[in-house]
Amino acid sequence: xxxxxxxxxxxxxxGGSLRxxxxxxxxxxxxxxxxxxxxxxxxxxxxxxxxxWRGENSYTGYYADSVKGRFTISRDNAKNTVYLQxxxxxxxxxxxxxxxxxMTGGAGMSTLDYDYWGQGTQVxxxx
Length: 127
Description:
With 127 residues, the chain is an all-beta fold.
């Protein structure tokens, strides 16, 4: 079993930045693919970014088109933590952001690809 705890959400003005963190316990995340998803009111949970495990200590990042160039996913395996750096935030980025972990290296952009989920952290962007 893996527990994921997100932090770093908050209220920010359009154009601002936030960094979300997701810390896992008790298992190490080295061989997990890790993803970020978000869910706005009245909408389905959608893909934001993933750092996909390729074997050994190799990972590849993928992004939703809507955040490409603005958001960056990274991980610190020594801290069992994955991050989502969000820059140039816009009101349409407002959502609850969820961290997810997958035991399969091929985890992609579907919620079905992930085995564990955090409780979510609210991000609100005002203009």
